[in-house]
Write a structure and sequence with these properties.
By secondary structure, this protein is an all-alpha fold. The protein is built from three helices and no strands. It has one domain. Helices cover 87% and strands 0% of the residues. It is elongated. The protein starts with 5 loop residues before the first helix and ends with a helix.
Length: 130
């Protein structure tokens, strides 16, 4: 069995970290798309459109959670394998980045879903009062 060198492990950790950043950016883009479409297009949203957007956003978010969990597992595994060869600052700040991502995801997901449905309800009220 051939083991990876310290350099290869460090490169692998950096690569997976970059993939996690890319994945998070994808989710943030999807979240902003939901928010912007809710703001701009709310006059055209009916129940089925709102439900469709909500379900698609939910599924994209669940995919994010699954992939984020898988990548986190890889990062933890590779970081343990790399041991002391990784800079102490990287090892110390990685959990903080992970925690803030989880918090940002939870708050962002809840806000996007609430705003989407609130836009729909406000539009319905406005239509009924007109």
């Amino acid at each position: 069995m051939k083991f990876m060198s310290t350099y290869e492990l460090a490169e692998l950790v950096i690569s997976v970290t970059g993939q996690m950043d890319s994945l998070f950016n994808y989710w943030m883009s999807a979240s902003f798309a939901v928010l912007v479409s809710s703001y701009i297009g709310k006059e055209h949203f009916n129940y089925s459109i709102t439900l469709s957007i909500s379900v698609l956003y939910f599924l994209a978010s669940m995919m994010f959670v699954a992939r984020y969990y898988a990548m986190t597992t890889l990062i933890i595994n590779y970081t343990e394998l790399a041991g002391a060869s990784l800079p102490a600052q990287f090892v110390a700040t990685s959990p903080i980045i992970g925690i803030t991502r989880v918090f940002t995801f939870l708050v962002g997901f809840i806000i996007a879903e609430i705003y989407l449905w609130n836009s729909y309800v406000e539009n319905r009220r406005k239509a009924q009062n007109s």
